[in-house]
Amino acid sequence: MRNMAERDGQLHDLEGKSNSLHMASGTFSAHATRLRKEQEWQRCKTRIAIFTVVLSLVWLLMLWLMAGKRGTFVLVSAAVLLVVLPIAWICVRRWRRLEEQEGFREAPDAI
Questions:
Q1: Over the stretch 35-63, which tens digit does the pLDDT of each residue have?
Q2: Whole-number Å distance between alpha carbons of 45 and 11
Q3: Which 3-state string (H, E, C) describes 22-90?
Q4: 3-state secondary structure 50-64
Q5: What is the rounded CA–CA span in Å between residue 28 and residue 111?
Q6: Among 3, 23, 44, 57, which residue has the fewest nearby CB atoms (within 10 Å)?
Q7: d(CA 8, CA 30)
């Protein structure tokens, strides 16, 4: 009887440890998903920054090469900028809305 009681106690202890491990693995999975999405957003921002720098350098080079038609070039550039900026702004707003819905921008819990 005593062995059965000890075994029952060990089984309950094992069940408690199993439940604890299951909860810890769920928390770990949620944190890993949040971290992956944050890193994806960081990579996206880095690519945007690099693209912006390269595009600015190309624009400056074209401005220098079009010495005789700078006024027209600047007007066309301004028109293109007026079209591109709202589209970029809408994309960023959409991404942030997705972040809020999925909750991966929240501060992580203490582990």
A1: 988 898 889 889 989 998 999 999 889 88
A2: 51
A3: HHHHHHHHHHHHHHHHHHHHHHHHHHHHHHHHHHHHHHHHHHHHCHHHHHHHHHHHHHHHHHHHHHHHH
A4: HHHHHHHHHHHHHHH
A5: 9
A6: 3
A7: 33
- Model's pTM, two decimal places? 0.59
Tokens of 78: 């301004």
| Residue 19, token pair as written in the block | 């439940």
Q: How far is CA 101 from the centre of its chain?
A: 13
Tokens for 3? 């062995």
Per-residue tokens: 38: 């944050």
- The pLDDT value recorded for residue 46 is 92
| Lookup: tokens for 46 | 């880095």
| Residue appearing with tokens 């190309």 | 58
- Tokens at residue 90, please? 């809408």
